[in-house]
Amino acid sequence: MHGAASIGHRLDVLLEEAGVRLLFLPKYSPELNPCELVFSQMKRHMYCNRGDEQFWVEMAKGLATVTRENVEGYYRKCILHPLRER
Fold first, then answer.
1. So where are the chain's domains?
2. Tens digit of pLDDT for each residue in 17-45?
3. Cβ-contact 79, 23 below 8 angstroms
4. Which residue, of 18, 31, 44, 45, has the fewest CB within 10 Å?
């Protein structure tokens, strides 16, 4: 919680009420971060389909290839990864 002890308990209560379980990543573990998989998919699309548009437009096109199913799969992959501490 980035050392914010003053809000730690309140955050725990809010997360519990929302049914959210907070999982901390080990240090230096991008393979457990679903965002890295999203970025990888975007970069792969941009590499294979680079057009003449401005870079931000090409990035948006890459992001548009990421579906809800992709994101859910990335979360499952990261949560079930063998390096994750249980």
1. 24-86
2. 999 877 777 788 888 889 999 999 999 99
3. yes
4. 18
